[in-house]
Amino acid sequence: MRRLVLLRHAEAASAPLGDFSAEADMNRPLTPVGQEAARRCGQWLAAQNIVPDSIICSPALRTRQTLAGALAALPATLPAPDYCADIYEATPEALLARIQQVPDSAFTVLMVGHNPGISLLAHHLDMQASELDQGFAPGAVAIFEMYGSDTLPDMTRWQMCDGQSMHLHTFARP
């Protein structure tokens, strides 16, 4: 079964007052509430038996901290995250292009990113999923499954990942 897990970073602190630079935005840390939410996300993923074998993460501090908090609840033998600058402030198309580059040896991909890109990508992958209409809050998780990958795993590829090949399995705010 090929699964894609989209995780929006947890609640982050605001940038310093009056500093609208990209550097200030990149260095926004999680709040204490965000740190706890990241831990809950990891516990929830562990309870669902979802362990990524490929991890794509924005290099922003808040996404790295969200990932670290979530991974703390998962098995210690996880792949090294791929911190991709190109998914910071990325369009849904750019996020999808990055997913389509994942090697086919990976069956569960975790992407940790930002809005609006993450929520727009989620809507693109399953336009029928009304659960996504409630908003993709900080710390929300969407799990998509690829059609046919449960019965024909050798016939499905991440290159095929698009709005026709995926369906929302679970949407949660742990």
Plain-language structure description:
The protein is built from 5 helices and 6 strands; from the N terminus they run E-H-H-E-H-E-H-E-H-E-E. It is α/β, with parallel strands linked by helices. Strands 3-2-4-1-5-6 form a 6-stranded mixed sheet, sandwiched between helices. Helix 3 (61-71) links the parallel strand 2 and strand 3. Helix 4 (92-99) crosses helix 5.
Q: Main sheet: which strands, in order across? A: 3-2-4-1-5-6
Largest sheet: 6 strands, mixed
Q: Which residues form runs of ≥5 with pLDDT under 50?
A: none
Number of strands: 6
Shape: globular
Structural class: alpha/beta
Q: Tell me the helix content.
A: 25-40%
Rounded to the nearest angstrom, the radius of gyration is 15 Å
Distance between the termini: 23 Å
Number of helices: 5
Order of helices and strands: EHHEHEHEHEE
Mean pLDDT: 94
Strand content: 15-25%
Short description:
The protein has five helices and six strands. It has 174 residues and is an alpha/beta fold. The two termini are 23 Å apart.
Per-chain topology:
Layout: E1 3-8, H1 22-26, H2 32-47, E2 54-57, H3 61-71, E3 82-83, H4 92-99, E4 108-113, H5 117-125, E5 141-146, E6 166-172
Parallel strand pairs: 1-4, 2-3, 2-4
Antiparallel strand pairs: 1-5, 5-6
Helix pairs in contact: 2-3, 4-5
